[in-house]
Amino acid sequence: MAEQIIFYILAAVIATFSIMAVSTKRIIRSATFLLFVLLSVAGLYLILGYQYLMAVQIAVYAGGIMVLFIFAILLTHKPGESAPSKPIAKRLLIALLSVGGLAFCTHIIVHNVSKVYSYSLGTTGSDIKYIGLTMMGTDKYQYLLAFEAISMLILACIIGGIMVARKRK
Amino acid sequence: MNYSQPLELSHVTAWLDEVLRGAMPEFWALLIEYVLIGVVLLTLYAVLALILIYAERKITAFFQSRLGPNRVGKWGIVQSVADMVKILIKEIIYVKKVDKVLFYVAPFFMIVASMLTFGAIPFGQGLQVVDFNIGVFYVLAVSSLGIIGVLLAGWSSNNKYSMVGAMRSGAQFVSYELSAGLALMTMVVLSGTMQLSEIVESQRYCWNLFNGHISAVIAFVIYLISGHAETNRGPFDLPEAESELIAGYHTEYSGLQFGFFYLAEYLNMFIIAAIATTVFLGGWMPIQVKGWDTFNQIMWYIPSYLWFFAKAAVLVFISLWVRWSFPRLRIDQLLNLEWKYLLPINLVNIFVMVLLVLSGLTLTGLFPNVFGN
């Protein structure tokens, strides 16, 4: 019962702040509301028992990406100004597109939710040791190759970033 | 070997749990326990803040050859209580040209972030609210939320000084968080677990600080430096440099809202000390020597929470010592220190620690009869 109550509270918070994030006219407020959404999603992970995923969600999204967002917004021109309203025709088009997107996503989620559920029953996902071994293993359903490939990609990105940022002498 | 621990608070909590479960269904018993835990944590948070503020003012005064607070009560001991009452009844000033929502939300970010971290600390045997199996990582993750409060406070105040303070604070926090995290990860390599209770348990006969000798000492020093930097204190207080920026990001705040920032700052100092105690100095575990049963028994008579607070108090004192001994850094010196010195040292250090652990050159690996669990 307690879990359900907490779930409904979190769901309400997620829904409210998602809408506020896209409907508010000041960009920095919408970043803050987005942060609330991300934190509530971390709460959902906690209910599911995925503590590792919760901590990653908070560290990466709330602590890392949101700080970057806010920094970037603060450095832009006049971040506190309200954005001008769009004309009616454009708004209708946007509403149509978002309803279409929502329908598409709902379709995919409803069709696949049972598959994900039956798959996740067999794993002990929240154990940090298990996650570590899976990341660094080479057996079936283990990710060493993907992990190394991503690290190579990130290394290439870093070098590329330095090359772009460096002044030519 | 079971030692008698007559003063342990876990006796009280266990008794309370038994009584509640006997008197009502499990759901209500748990609910009451959760509420009680929340109340106790909040009270502890406030009381610790009062003690820390008094200690800081007194110790600072001694460093500067002054007397410090000495009028309210004997040795001015109720001074910070009086200050608390004053701050509670002060008017919260509604500044006109601020971004209303963010201005009022910002202090809560600070206080919630430090409260979330505070809740995960093991204060004594059986005195830990949640014992995640990712304890260290959880602490790092939630403590990073506070910086958002600082950035929002600085920006929403609509004030140049606040803004500059917030930007400095942001740059500082983001950089030093890396070092703090890597230093803690070095110790995770050593203890082989992220669970705070297991980290404490594994230091029964040998603190991690000695167990990992070279690497652990380097990690400890780096953690303390970056911890001071993260709390915007010590020589790293340039986000609120009084002489340049009035008070930095909380210039426009008054009354209880300012109180929130103030409280969070002091508690963050304690939290850094508490985490360093848990990870490096054996947490609440009393000093014990293998085989000396009488000695160990005497040490266990001192309750575990006193051990914890005593160790943390030493680290808090070091923090104050550093704060009043070094001049403030410039922003470029600050960033140089982190990116050019601490971070590379840290990366090498974590590698050395891996080698030490793999080759069994830790103290528990070399002398399992003396230090092993």
Annotate the secondary structure layout.
The complex is a heterodimer of chains A (169) and B (373).
Chain A: H1 2-23, H2 27-48, H3 51-75, H4 88-121, H5 128-136, H6 144-165
Chain B: H1 10-23, H2 26-63, H3 79-89, H4 100-119, H5 135-143, H6 146-156, H7 160-191, H8 196-201, H9 208-211, H10 213-230, H11 242-245, H12 255-280, H13 293-301, H14 304-323, H15 331-358, H16 363-366, H17 368-371
Helix pairs in contact in B: 1-2, 2-3, 2-12, 4-5, 4-6, 4-12, 6-7, 7-10, 7-15, 10-12, 10-15, 12-14
What name does CATH use for the topology of the largest domain in chain A? Four Helix Bundle (Hemerythrin (Met), subunit A)
What is the average of the pLDDT values of chain A?
81
| Individual helix count of chain B | 17
User: Total number of β-strand segments of chain B?
Assistant: 0
Number of helices of chain A: 6
CATH C-level name of the largest domain in chain A: Mainly Alpha
Shape of chain A: globular
Oligomer: heterodimer
Rg of chain B computed from alpha carbons, rounded to a whole number of angstroms: 22 Å
Largest sheet of chain A: none
